[in-house]
C-alpha cells in the first residue's frame, strides 16, 4: 500500500487553493496547492523534517509534485514541506503528518484493508491446513483480527497458529484431526468497520486439504531423507604428477546412503593407488602418485531408498615444469 502526497502547480495565486484528499480505493493521500507563473527554471523540492527527500517527483507539464511512501508506518510521522522556487523567489506548503492527522490516515487504511479482504481460502500444507484471506493492507496497530471455530474464539496454541503480513491474514492448523472440521470465521475490526468472513472446513473441502497435506508431508520426508552430496567437492582440482590427491565431501541421508565413485561415468575400482574412506558423513577419495591417466571427470554417487545424487569434480594432472591449465589461461 502506497501513501501519496501530491502538490499540483497550475493556474491561480501563490498560497491559494490548498486541498487534502484521501482516495478510498487505493488508500492514498493527495495534497494539492495551486501556484502561478511557473517556468522551465522553476524547481520543486520535497522536505521531511527539514531534510530534502530526493525520491520526490515533479512533472512540469502537469504541474504535479508527487511523493510516494511505501508501507507507511510510525517512522513516517513528521512535518512534510513542498517548495517551489526560481529566480523570482520561493513558495511552500506544509503538511503536518502527526497526531490526529496520522491516526486518521491509519484508520482509513485499516478500513480499506478490512473492506479489501478476499473470501477465505483453504490450503493444505506440509505442516497441516491453512486458512487465509488476502488484503490490500494490514496494520497491527489499527486493525484487529479474531478467529472463531464453530463460533468459539480461537487462541494460538500447540496446534493452532495465527498471524498476519502486510497483505495476508492467516490461520494454520498443525497436525489436523477430525475435531478440526467445521465452520471457521475471521473477524476483522478497523475503527468502526467490522467484517466477518467464513468458510466450512468439512466434507470435500476437508478431504482435499488433508490429501494435499499428506502429499506435501510425504514429499518433505523424501527431500529431508534422500541421499545428498551437501558440500566439499570443488569444480576443478589441479595437481602435479607424482603427488597424492585427497578429495573430501560431506553426504547426508537416512537411511545411510550407498556410496560409489565414477570416473568419466565408469565405476572406479579401489585398488593399488586408489582408496576410499568413510568417516560418518565425510567421504574421502585418495589417489597416490597421480599421473596424466588420472585426469578426468570424477563423481561421487550416493543413493538410498528416497533418492540419489551425484557430486562432480574435474581433476587435471600436469607434468613437472608445466603450469596448471588455469594459470596458463590467466
UniProtKB/TrEMBL annotation:
Chain residue ranges for the region called Disordered: 1-36
Residue span, Ig-like domain: 227-316
UniProt-listed Pfam families: I-set
Domain of life: Eukaryota
InterPro entries in alphabetical order: Ig-like_dom, Ig-like_dom_sf, Ig-like_fold, Ig_I-set, Ig_sub, Ig_sub2
Signal peptide: none
UniProt feature, compositional bias: Polar residues: 20-36
Gene3D superfamilies, sorted: Immunoglobulins (2.60.40.10)
Family annotation (PANTHER family): IG-LIKE DOMAIN-CONTAINING PROTEIN, IMMUNOGLOBULIN
Name this protein carries in UniProt: Myomesin 3
Amino acid at each position: 500500500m502506497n501513501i501519496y502526497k501530491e502538490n499540483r502547480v497550475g493556474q491561480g495565486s501563490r498560497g491559494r487553493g490548498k486541498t487534502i484528499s484521501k482516495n478510498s480505493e487505493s488508500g492514498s493521500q493527495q495534497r494539492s496547492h495551486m501556484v502561478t507563473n511557473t517556468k522551465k527554471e522553476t524547481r520543486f523540492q520535497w522536505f521531511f523534517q527539514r531534510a530534502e527527500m530526493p525520491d520526490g517527483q515533479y512533472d512540469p507539464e502537469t504541474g504535479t509534485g508527487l511523493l510516494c511512501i511505501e508501507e507507511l508506518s510510525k517512522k513516517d510521522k513528521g512535518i512534510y514541506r513542498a517548495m517551489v522556487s526560481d529566480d523570482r523567489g520561493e513558495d511552500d506548503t506544509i503538511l503536518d503528518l502527526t497526531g490526529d492527522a496520522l491516526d486518521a490516515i491509519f484508520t482509513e487504511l485499516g478500513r480499506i484493508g478490512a473492506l479489501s479482504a478476499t473470501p477465505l481460502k483453504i490450503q493444505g500444507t506440509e505442516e497441516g491446513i491453512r486458512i487465509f484471506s488476502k488484503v490490500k493492507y494490514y496494520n497491527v496497530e489499527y486493525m484487529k483480527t479474531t478467529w472463531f471455530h464453530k463460533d468459539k474464539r480461537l487462541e494460538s496454541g500447540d496446534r493452532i497458529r495465527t498471524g498476519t503480513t502486510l497483505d495476508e491474514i492467516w490461520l494454520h492448523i498443525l497436525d489436523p484431526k477430525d475435531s478440526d472440521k467445521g465452520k471457521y470465521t475471521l473477524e476483522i475490526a478497523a475503527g468502526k468497520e467490522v467484517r466477518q468472513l467464513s468458510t466450512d472446513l468439512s466434507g470435500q473441502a476437508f478431504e482435499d486439504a488433508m490429501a494435499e497435506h499428506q502429499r506435501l508431508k510425504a514429499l518433505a520426508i523424501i527431500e529431508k531423507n534422500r541421499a545428498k552430496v551437501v558440500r566439499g567437492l570443488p569444480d576443478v582440482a589441479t595437481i602435479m604428477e607424482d603427488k597424492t590427491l585427497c578429495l573430501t565431501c560431506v553426504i547426508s541421508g537416512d537411511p545411510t546412503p550407498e556410496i560409489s565413485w565414477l570416473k568419466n561415468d565408469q565405476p572406479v575400482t579401489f585398488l593399488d593407488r586408489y582408496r576410499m574412506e568413510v568417516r560418518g558423513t565425510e567421504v574421502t577419495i585418495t589417489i597416490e602418485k597421480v599421473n596424466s591417466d588420472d585426469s578426468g571427470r570424477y563423481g561421487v554417487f550416493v543413493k538410498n531408498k528416497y533418492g540419489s545424487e551425484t557430486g562432480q569434480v574435474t581433476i587435471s594432472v600436469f607434468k613437472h615444469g608445466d603450469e596448471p591449465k588455469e594459470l596458463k589461461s590467466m
